[in-house]
Amino acid sequence: MRASPLTLWVRLRELLAGRGLSISTSVLVFLFPDGDSAEAGVVVSDGGRVYEFDISYDRMREGGDVNAVIEHWHDITSCWQAHPFHSEIADAFIWRPPARRTYLVLS
């Protein structure tokens, strides 16, 4: 998700950034097709919030992903442990990059 030039990933990065997520430190837990016009996903933000969402676009039309929109954006931070993909979400917390980096300046 972070660097792919594929149109869907470019658009997803734009949409998530528009929701205030830092792409470099958030983790996309999963994104999978959900019918002809949507994909379902879960993302863990750099602040540790967990969001479930649907991204809608015309999957059957080439280039339809350019106009994708996020629908059904839900903060599931308080209940992700009951989510069907709870173990994958837990793994995302382990692998999530740190939100802040500290640099040691050597003199």
Order of helices and strands: HEEEEH
- The strand count comes to 4
Give the C-alpha Rg. 15 Å
Shape: globular
- Tell me the strand percentage band: 25-35%
Give the overall average pLDDT: 88
> Kindly, what is the distance between the CA atoms of the first and last residues, rounded to a whole number of angstroms?
37 Å
The share of residues in helices is 10-25%
Structural class, by secondary structure, is: alpha+beta
Query: Numbering strands along the chain, what is their spatial order in the largest sheet?
Result: 1-2-3-4
Largest sheet: 4 strands, antiparallel
Identify low-pLDDT runs: none
Number of helices: 2
Write the layout of secondary structure elements.
Layout: H1 7-18, E1 27-33, E2 38-44, E3 50-56, E4 69-75, H2 86-95
Antiparallel strand pairs: 1-2, 2-3, 3-4
Characterization of this structure:
By secondary structure, this protein is an alpha+beta fold. It has helices at residues 7-18, 86-95; strands at residues 27-33, 38-44, 50-56, 69-75. The protein has a four-stranded antiparallel beta sheet with strand order 1-2-3-4. β2 and β3 (50-56) form a beta hairpin. It is globular, with a radius of gyration of 15 Å. It starts with 6 loop residues before the first helix and ends in a 12-residue tail after the last helix. The mean pLDDT is 88.
Throw out a few tags for this protein.
single chain, 107 residues, alpha+beta, 4-stranded antiparallel sheet, 4 strands
